Q: What sequence folds into this?
C-alpha cells in the first residue's frame, strides 16, 4: 500500500527583504523599491533632497539677487541666518509629530506647508521680503527629522547607521546639486530671451515644483512602519498611542540627547553655514566667475554622496567590532579631524588650489561625522525617538545660526578668519562626547556597568502598569536586536544571530 505524504507549503514571507523579530530590515538593498522598507528609504531621501534644494536655491544666484535688490553684506548674512533658524523649532515639532502621528504625514505636511514660500521667492522686491522667503523656506529642513526617524523605524540596529547615513547624505546632496542646477536654469531661461531680472526669478519654480511632487509621492506611496501606518496600528491596538507629555519628558531628561544636539551643531550646523557662504567666498576671494564658484560650492555638498553614508557605514562597522564604544570613539575622532581641516582651510586662503583641496577633505570629514552621529541617536531612546532626533537635528540648525551670527554676519571678520574660528569651535564642541555613557554598553572612557542590560535601560521609559499591558513590547524587541552594541563578547554570547551590515544589491528585487 502506497502512502502519500502531503507536505504543506512553507508560508510566504511577509516582506521581500529579510527582517528581524521587530520586522525591521536586516539588509540594505540600495537599488530596490521593495515595500515598505526600501520604498520608505527612497521617498525619505528624495523628499529631503528637494527641501534642501529649495532652502539653498538662493545662494548660487546671490550675486544677481544682490545687485537686483541692492542687498548689503548685513542683509545677506541675516537672510542666511533666517534660512536655518526657523528649522530649529520646526525640527522639534517634527520630532514630536513623528512620535505621535508617524513620519509619513509629518513629512508631507511640512513639505506642503513650506512650498508656497519657495514660489514666493520669485516675487521678492526688497531685502525684507528676501529674508522672509528664506526664513519660511528653511522650515522645510525639518523633513530631515522624519527621514532619520523613518529609517530608524524600518532598519534593524546593526545597519541603522548605514540607512540613516545614506538617506541623510543623499538628501543633503540637494545642497550641492542646487549649486549646479540654479545657474543652469538661470542660463537656460536667459537664453530663451528673458532678462537677468526675470531669469533668476523664474528659476525658483523648479525647486518649488520638485518639492510639491515629493510631498505627493510620500503621501501616495509611503508607509509609517513595517507593519502599517500609525492610524491603522493604533486602531488595531498593535501600537500604543502615546501622549505628548510622556514623549517630551523622556526626551528632555535624557542628557545624551543634549550632548548629541551640541555636537551635531558643529558638524551639520557647519555644513549649513558653509552652504550659505562658500560660493560667494570663492567668487569674491579668488575672483572666479559665477559658474566656477557654483561648481566649487557644489563639490562641497555633492561629497555627501559618499561621505555621510560612509560615516554611517563606519559607525555600524565600529559597532560590529567594538560595540557602542566604537561608535562614540569614531564620531569623536572624525569630527575632531574635521575641525582641524576647517582651521587649515581658513589659513590657506592665499592659494586657490590649496583652498579647493582642503575644502574637499574638510567636507568629507564634517559630513561623515553627521552620519556617525545618527548611528548613535536611535539608541538613546525608543519611546522618544522622534523628539530626540528632532532635538539633535535642531541642534544642527542652532549651530548654523550661532556660527553665522558670530563669524559671517556683517564685516566684523574676514570670511577666512571666520572659517578658522569655526574650526576651533568644532574641536571644542566635540569634547563633550566623552561624557556620554550607556550603563549596558559603556562610554568612551569606561566600560559597561556590571549586570546592566539594554532591556532594563529601555524599560525605564515605561511605568510598571504600562509594561504589564505590553506597551513596551517593541522596545523589548529592539533591546534584543541591539545586542551587538555591547561588543563582540556580548554578541557571541547571545542566542541571536546578528546579520552583518552589508550594502547588498539583490537581483530581481527592484519593484514595489
A:
Amino acid at each position: 500500500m502506497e502512502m502519500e505524504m502531503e507536505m504543506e507549503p512553507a508560508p510566504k514571507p511577509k516582506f521581500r527583504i529579510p527582517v528581524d523579530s521587530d520586522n525591521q530590515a536586516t539588509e540594505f538593498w540600495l537599488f530596490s523599491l521593495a515595500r515598505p522598507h526600501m520604498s520608505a528609504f527612497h521617498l525619505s531621501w528624495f523628499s529631503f533632497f528637494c527641501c534642501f534644494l529649495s532652502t539653498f536655491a538662493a545662494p548660487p544666484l546671490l550675486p544677481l539677487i544682490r545687485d537686483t535688490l541692492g542687498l548689503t553684506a548685513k542683509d545677506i548674512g541675516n537672510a542666511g541666518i533666517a534660512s536655518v533658524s526657523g528649522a530649529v523649532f520646526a525640527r522639534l515639532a517634527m520630532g514630536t509629530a513623528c512620535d505621535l502621528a508617524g513620519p509619513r504625514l509629518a513629512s508631507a505636511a511640512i513639505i506642503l506647508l513650506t512650498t508656497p514660500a519657495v514660489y514666493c521667492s520669485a516675487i521678492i522686491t526688497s531685502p525684507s521680503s528676501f529674508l522672509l522667503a528664506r526664513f519660511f523656506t528653511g522650515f522645510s529642513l525639518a523633513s530631515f527629522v522624519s527621514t532619520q526617524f523613518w529609517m530608524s523605524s524600518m532598519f534593524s540596529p546593526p545597519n541603522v547607521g548605514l540607512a540613516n547615513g545614506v538617506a541623510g547624505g543623499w538628501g543633503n546632496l540637494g545642497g550641492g546639486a542646487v549649486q549646479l542646477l540654479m545657474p543652469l536654469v538661470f542660463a537656460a531661461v536667459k537664453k530663451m530671451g528673458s532678462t537677468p531680472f526675470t531669469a533668476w526669478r523664474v528659476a525658483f519654480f523648479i525647486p518649488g515644483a520638485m518639492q510639491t511632487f515629493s510631498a505627493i509621492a510620500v503621501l501616495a506611496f509611503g508607509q509609517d512602519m513595517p507593519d502599517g501606518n500609525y492610524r491603522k496600528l493604533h486602531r488595531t491596538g498593535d501600537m500604543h498611542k502615546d501622549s505628548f507629555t510622556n514623549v517630551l519628558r523622556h526626551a528632555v531628561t535624557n542628557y545624551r540627547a543634549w550632548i548629541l544636539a551640541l555636537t551635531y551643531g558643529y558638524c551639520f550646523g557647519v555644513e549649513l553655514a558653509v552652504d550659505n557662504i562658500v560660493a560667494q567666498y570663492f567668487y569674491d576671494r579668488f575672483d572666479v566667475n559665477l559658474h566656477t564658484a557654483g561648481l566649487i560650492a557644489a563639490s562641497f555638498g555633492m561629497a555627501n554622496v559618499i561621505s555621510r553614508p560612509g560615516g554611517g557605514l563606519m559607525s555600524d562597522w565600529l559597532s560590529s567590532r567594538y560595540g557602542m564604544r566604537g561608535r562614540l570613539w569614531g564620531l569623536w575622532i572624525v569630527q575632531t579631524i574635521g575641525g582641524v581641516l576647517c582651521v587649515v582651510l581658513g589659513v590657506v586662503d592665499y592659494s586657490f588650489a590649496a583652498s579647493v583641496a582642503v575644502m574637499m577633505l574638510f567636507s568629507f570629514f564634517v559630513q561623515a561625522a553627521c552620519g556617525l552621529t545618527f548611528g548613535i541617536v536611535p539608541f538613546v531612546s525608543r519611546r522618544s525617538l522622534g523628539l530626540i532626533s528632532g532635538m539633535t537635528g535642531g541642534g544642527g540648525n542652532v549651530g548654523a545660526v550661532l556660527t553665522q551670527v558670530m563669524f559671517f554676519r556683517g564685516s566684523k571678520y574676514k570670511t577666512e578668519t571666520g572659517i578658522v574660528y569655526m574650526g576651533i569651535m568644532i574641536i571644542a564642541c566635540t569634547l563633550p562626547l566623552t561624557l556620554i555613557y550607556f550603563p549596558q554598553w559603556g562610554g568612551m572612557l569606561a566600560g559597561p556597568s556590571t549586570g546592566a542590560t539594554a532591556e532594563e535601560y529601555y524599560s525605564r521609559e515605561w511605568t510598571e502598569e504600562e509594561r504589564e499591558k505590553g506597551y513596551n513590547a517593541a522596545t523589548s524587541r529592539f533591546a534584543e536586536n541591539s545586542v551587538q552594541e555591547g561588543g563582540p563578547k556580548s554578541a557571541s554570547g547571545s542566542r541571536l544571530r546578528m546579520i552583518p551590515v552589508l550594502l547588498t544589491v539583490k537581483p530581481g528585487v527592484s519593484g514595489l
In short: The two ends are 49 Å apart (CA to CA). The CA atoms of residues 324 and 485 lie 5 Å apart.
